[in-house]
Design a protein that fits this description.
heterodimer; A: mainly alpha; 9 helices; 51% helix; B: alpha/beta; Rossmann fold; four-stranded parallel beta sheet; 12 helices
């Protein structure tokens, strides 16, 4: 099957939403893979940052939404700092989180978080975790 | 000299030693960290998506209050530093967002505050030579890994504290204290941050990589500038059966090390709260 790449593939509402919320243009990525190379959590992701962007370029909404990648991104910005095109995969993954959370679809439930963590962890971990995982 | 100081939520609670050791080191260096009269949590994460203006209101409130007390504010926690400095830039440079934020927090803040990290205070306001002259107890021969993590450095165009890929500010401070800084590959890699909430395995892997990377290069201790890095490194080492490949690797805040070198009373450094005690390492060196 021949898949043509370019703006015309980026017409799905979901992909447009990702671009609007992240402020990133997906077509800017030429798939060099520096982002995944620098990503400290790509080993645990279903799709590394490069693959997430590729899937979005190809309009593969379900594969992106069902992957665990967005919930593992730590926002360390290695991907962005090493991208020769100035694309921030971290922003794109944040946009994916935001699309889910803005529907009220929480990734973490307060009741399920272990009590020792809530008692002993630095407050910043809890505040940051809630910002990333809860609507 | 007085410098306005923003402690942030964690330094007021679980990372008390980071706070007290910095305040007392400041006194020994001849200046005062003056805590802001009014402050709130910075939000602990700079909102990465540009349309999330709500996430900027809490840090903007901090900045607005700080501006009323002076033109500079300093902070110790890398995350606070990152969030405050980046928010300040948005308020200063983005007129539209500035209007929305000010409208929401009911202030007239213009982004004219100077946000600096405590490391920058030591380097630029005090001077490392003066710090060196104030050292009473040189930490001679202590091989220390300076762990920057992410938030102190990235994104470089916003933070600008030092070179993003090869920073030296931390090592330069350690040298002034008499330590032998150890260069290790993972010094600017992430500790796992908020994944501590529910994803411990990933944190253990990331922090474990940092610890073993430092150890492989000969580090005996690891020095941090963020309570969450400190927590993740310590908890990960606990989960790694209490050692990094057979030896303990104490981690501590850079201000605790600074306090030790300046001859600060050990009881006020909060060392007993650290899971792995640095004192046996110092004792082994006759310090």
């Amino acid at each position: 099957m021949l898949i043509k790449l370019g703006k015309e593939n980026l017409q799905s509402e979901f992909v447009k939403l990702v671009e609007r919320i992240s402020g990133e243009e997906l077509a800017n990525c030429y798939q060099c893979g520096n982002c995944t190379g620098g990503c400290p959590v790509s080993f645990a992701m279903d799709f590394g940052p490069r693959e997430i962007i590729r899937l979005l370029q190809l309009g593969q909404e379900d594969a992106v939404k069902n992957s665990n990648s967005m919930w593992l991104c730590v926002g360390c910005l290695q991907c962005y700092c090493r991208c020769p095109k100035g694309v921030s995969a971290a922003k794109i993954l944040e946009a994916l989180r935001q699309i889910t959370l803005r529907k009220g679809d929480d990734h973490a439930q307060i009741k399920e978080i272990a009590f020792p963590f809530m008692k002993n962890a630095p407050q910043q971990a809890i505040v940051c975790g809630f910002r990333k995982f809860v609507s | 000299m007085k410098i306005s100081y923003y402690p942030g939520c964690t330094l007021n609670t679980v990372a008390k030693g980071f706070d007290t050791s910095a305040r007392q080191s400041a006194v020994l260096l001849g200046f005062e960290l003056k805590e802001l009269v009014q402050w709130n949590c910075c939000g602990a994460a700079f909102p990465l998506t540009p349309d999330n203006v709500m996430g900027l209101t809490a840090p903007a409130k901090v900045l607005s209050n700080a501006r009323k007390e002076g033109d500079t504010v300093t902070t110790l926690c890398s995350v606070c530093y990152n969030v405050l400095k980046r928010t300040n830039k948005v308020v200063r440079d983005d007129k539209e967002k500035r209007g929305v934020i000010n409208n929401f927090i009911e202030e007239e803040y213009d982004g004219s505050l100077n946000v600096i990290h405590f490391l920058e205070v030591l380097r630029d306001k005090i001077g490392f030579d003066k710090v060196k002259a104030a050292v009473k107890r040189p930490l001679k021969g202590v091989k220390a890994g300076a762990y920057y993590g992410c938030m102190l450095l990235r994104p470089f165009e916003d933070m600008g504290i030092d070179n993003a890929e090869a920073p030296t500010i931390f090592e330069d401070l350690l040298k002034t204290l008499g330590c032998e800084p150890v260069e290790f590959p993972n010094k600017i890699e992430c500790c796992g941050t908020h994944l501590a909430m529910g994803n411990e395995d990933v944190v253990t892997k990331l922090s474990g990589n940092v610890l073993s990377s430092a150890k492989n290069k000969g580090a005996e201790i690891i020095v941090t500038s963020c309570p969450l890095c400190q927590y993740n490194l310590e908890k990960s080492q606990k989960r790694m059966e209490g050692s990094v490949g057979g030896t303990q690797m104490p981690s501590l805040y850079f201000t605790q090390l600074l306090g030790l070198a300046l001859g600060q009373d050990e009881g006020s450094l909060g060392l007993e709260k650290n899971l792995f005690d640095v004192r046996p390492v110092l004792k082994g060196k006759g310090i």
